[in-house]
């Protein structure tokens, strides 16, 4: 049987467990602060992303509307 060098599901579960241990005793307000403080850590502003890829930013008003819903 082939062994997997990387198990995505196990990694996701370990990360979820770590987060649970951090937030399980927090109040609702503390938990909201926790998530809001972490929300932008791994994200670049759109302008930086598009500059690095050579693409232009598109706003939602410039996108075609989906009328099939």
UniProtKB/TrEMBL annotation:
<feature type="region of interest" description="Disordered">
    <location>
        <begin position="36"/>
        <end position="69"/>
    </location>
</feature>
<feature type="compositionally biased region" description="Polar residues">
    <location>
        <begin position="54"/>
        <end position="69"/>
    </location>
</feature>
<feature type="compositionally biased region" description="Basic and acidic residues">
    <location>
        <begin position="41"/>
        <end position="53"/>
    </location>
</feature>
<protein>
    <submittedName>
        <fullName>Uncharacterized protein</fullName>
    </submittedName>
</protein>
């Amino acid at each position: 049987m082939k062994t997997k060098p990387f198990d995505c599901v196990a990694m996701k579960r370990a990360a979820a467990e770590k987060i649970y241990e951090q937030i399980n005793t927090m109040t609702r307000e503390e938990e909201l602060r926790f998530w809001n403080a972490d929300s932008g850590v791994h994200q670049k502003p759109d302008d930086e992303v598009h500059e690095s890829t050579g693409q232009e930013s598109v706003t939602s008003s410039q996108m075609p509307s989906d009328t099939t819903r």
